[in-house]
Amino acid sequence: MRAFMPKRFAEYTLSDWQRLRPLTQKYKTLRYRLVNAVHMLRKARKGDPGALARSICGRKVLVTIAYSDPQLIEWQAQLMRTYVPESFYLIADNSPDDRSAGAIARIAEQHGVAYIRLPANPWGCGSRSHGIAMNWLWRNVILPGEPEAFGFLDHDLFPTAPDDPFAMLSMQDYYGLTRTAGSRWFLWAGFCVFKFDSVRHKPLDFSQDWFVGLDTGGGNWEVLYRHVDRAKLREPAYSIFPFKPGLVINEGAMQWCGSWLHELGQSGRPELAAEKRLTLARLLGPHLATANSCLAACDRVQVLG
Hints:
Radius of gyration: 20 Å
Strand order of the largest sheet: 3-2-1-4-7-6
Strand content: 15-25%
Distance between the termini: 62 Å
Order of helices and strands: HHHEHEHEHEEEEHEEEH
Number of helices: 8
Number of domains: 2
Number of strands: 10
Helix content: 25-40%
CATH class of the largest domain: Alpha Beta
Structural class: alpha/beta
CATH architecture of the largest domain: Alpha-Beta Complex
CATH topology of the largest domain: Spore Coat Polysaccharide Biosynthesis Protein SpsA, Chain A
Shape: globular
């Protein structure tokens, strides 16, 4: 059973056995893995994964998983070009609807950013959808592309100062924000980078496994994280705060991950989402102004050249 799921027999209680949870959880996990294996063979809806693989060879690659929010991608693309210019930035579009995907593709073209629209996702939105999208990119673009290093970003995560998220890979094989589930831990899928040579021969799995409390990216616990002393890893500074005074964290949180600002768009009270987006726009405003100035200067240089 351990070959198919991380939970061990000793971790099940008598109540679990009475409810047949070891068997039902094994069945569900096998089904998830079968869906994942089939999905790896599906073709991109737009873009050429083979051409992308050739483009990233030997480079440092940051992949953002886009999902039905062109405004976020517009902001992220501007800030990435200004503050993280040395990385190969790839927009991997997981949007289910053609309208959002078309808008995101146009933004990528406008900013000269690599773009691919992922196969139709079998899981819809949420953690499971995000994880299988990451697995598809690992299998079809990153692994055959053999970059020097690679990483994943959430589409609502924004650099606000010059940064090289790959710098820490000179001291460790991977870097990012860790999350804990009991005795297990994993790198948060929204900000994680890896030295390619350290993982190229490992059966990476960016899925989640709620049976043991692991969110997206936690599927790598068995093949990667359990073999590493977490205490020896350096992590980015982290803080979480309500987006306006008078709220508790779970009503409308935002995060700092080093100098990267995370909207946390899926959390909080739904009726506050529009106000939260306005707060994000206000916080990013000075940085977007800087980005626009830098881009205008670069364009002038290219014209004069």
